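sry for the spam today, last one i promise. struct tokens for design, 451 residues
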């Protein structure tokens, strides 16, 4: 399961600055999609081949009793409880405050692995800064500057140490899997905000079907995988909230958890994003969708409770989706009723197609041909005196498909042109259902691109 780093600290210590730094590398992979707004509190990070989640709890006031601050504290509490690693940020310039001490006590009680991070320490003597904060009893302080990036890499390495050896093993397994990829059983996550009908869909999917094996969730910290079979095809359902079998039906044993949802999305090959037709599309729907795209997951959109809405509402929902989730243009949409079992076969059909698209093999000659045709139809715009030269393309990965384009002066290809190319590749290779990543690799020779 993907590790989650949770940033905690009083207001103004630099949590957002650190959050941005930790999530920046991953963001850079996603061509900026119109309409996609990022959640400022939940993000992806990556160190080498190890992905991780970062959660910024905002200003944490453990003593607040009511109001918005209390609500934030409540959310922070649940993030703390679910953290794999807590990063407790303090301000090296302000020095130790009583509020820091109160937070430290609270964090130690959680029993989660904890690292004390002293921020804003650029230009300061590390040993001296560390000495002051040692007395907090949170172990050796890590001295960093989030604004300048000093010590951030070491911080992440230390925080992720328990996962790093495991990564090596996972990676070999993943590389080995690749050849038999399409035969592999897809992992499917059903994601969506509270009350959209996820449990109902799971029950409709699993209820009467043969569940091949089902482990009772002993430790809820690990992803629970439920293998099932439908119409002779095998799938593995990644649970987002801790499923428990109660008689013939499944029920979720935990309330909605953003972190569990995001972990399941990361773990899955295909995400079924569920929204509620009786409600307008919300920021939270858009954030979950955006997160799935950043993770590169294949995606199917299920608009649920279609039975409960009239024609007027149906039209309105379609317009709303087109407007607020327009960056999901690559995904197939199904209007369904999880409760009545209507449209469910369609969802699985699209899961199959999205998975096949996500694992598509694209040979270099074909890719290069499609690239050539695309450039011939519309050349990339000039940048200053040079025009980017796109020479050939090869496939750099699957789920999501990564297309690596080689050439010269590729640093200045605009995002709009990248989206144009994405469209060309999508169409040529029939990649509907999966996002696509394009990466550019410029040749080093500065004279090669004169034209
Ligand atoms: N000198 C210095 N300033 C920093 C550093 N990191 C953050 N800051 C500054 O500290 C201030 C607060 O940073 P934020 O990242 O907004 O802090 P925060 O903890 O997210 O604050 P809240 O959103 O109020 O919880 C900003 O003015 C930052 O520019 C650093 O490494 N060095
Ligand atoms: N009319 C109608 N109601 C539905 C449908 N699917 C689910 N519901 C109802 O919506 C409510 C929420 O359904 P759940 O399946 O519990 O939703 P959930 O997304 O699992 O909710 P959380 O566990 O809170 O995340 C229940 O009252 C369901 O009966 C549907 O297709 N049509």
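last one done:
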């Amino acid at each position: 399961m993907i590790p989650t780093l949770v940033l905690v600290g009083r207001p103004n210590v630099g949590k957002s600055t650190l959050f941005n730094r930790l999530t920046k590398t991953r963001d850079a992979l996603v061509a900026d999609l119109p309409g996609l707004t990022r959640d400022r509190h939940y993000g992806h990070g990556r160190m080498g081949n190890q992905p991780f989640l970062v959660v910024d709890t905002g200003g944490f006031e453990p003593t607040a009793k009511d109001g918005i601050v209390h609500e934030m504290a409540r959310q922070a509490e649940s993030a703390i409880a679910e953290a794999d690693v807590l990063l407790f940020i303090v301000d090296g310039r302000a020095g130790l405050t009583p509020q820091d001490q109160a937070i430290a006590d609270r964090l130690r009680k959680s029993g989660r692995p904890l690292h004390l991070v002293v921020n804003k320490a650029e230009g300061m003597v590390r040993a001296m800064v560390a000495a002051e904060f040692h007395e907090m009893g949170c172990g050796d302080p890590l001295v960093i500057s989030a604004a300048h990036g000093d010590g951030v890499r070491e911080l992440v390495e230390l925080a992720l140490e328990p996962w790093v050896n495991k990564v090596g093993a996972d990676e070999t397994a993943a590389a080995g899997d690749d050849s038999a990829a399409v035969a592999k059983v897809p992992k499917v996550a059903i994601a969506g905000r509270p009350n959209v009908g996820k449990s109902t869909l799971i029950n409709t999917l699993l209820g009467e079907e043969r569940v091949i094996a089902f482990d009772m969730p002993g430790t809820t910290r690990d992803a629970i995988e439920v293998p099932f079979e439908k119409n002779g095809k095998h799938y593995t359902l990644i649970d987002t909230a801790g499923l428990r079998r109660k008689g013939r039906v499944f029920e979720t044993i935990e309330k909605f958890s953003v972190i569990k949802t995001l972990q399941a999305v990361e773990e899955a090959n295909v995400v079924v994003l569920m929204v509620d037709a009786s409600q307008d599309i919300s920021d939270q729907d858009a954030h979950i969708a955006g997160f799935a795209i950043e993770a590169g997951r294949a995606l199917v959109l299920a608009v649920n409770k279609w039975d409960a809405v009239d024609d007027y509402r149906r039209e309105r929902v379609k317009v709303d989706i087109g407007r607020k989730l327009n960056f999901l243009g690559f995904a197939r949409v199904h209007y369904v009723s999880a409760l009545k079992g209507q449209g469910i076969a369609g969802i699985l059909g699209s899961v199959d197609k999205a998975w096949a698209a996500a694992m598509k093999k694209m040979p270099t000659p074909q890719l290069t041909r499609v690239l050539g045709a695309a450039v011939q139809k519309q050349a990339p715009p000039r940048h200053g005196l040079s025009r980017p030269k796109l020479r050939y393309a090869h496939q750099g990965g699957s789920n999501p498909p990564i297309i690596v384009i080689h050439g010269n002066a590729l640093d200045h290809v605009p995002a709009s042109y990248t989206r144009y190319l994405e469209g060309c590749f999508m169409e040529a290779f029939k990649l509907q259902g999966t996002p696509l990543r394009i990466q550019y690799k410029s040749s080093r020779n500065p004279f090669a691109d004169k034209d």
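The longest strand covers residues 389-397. ok im logging off now
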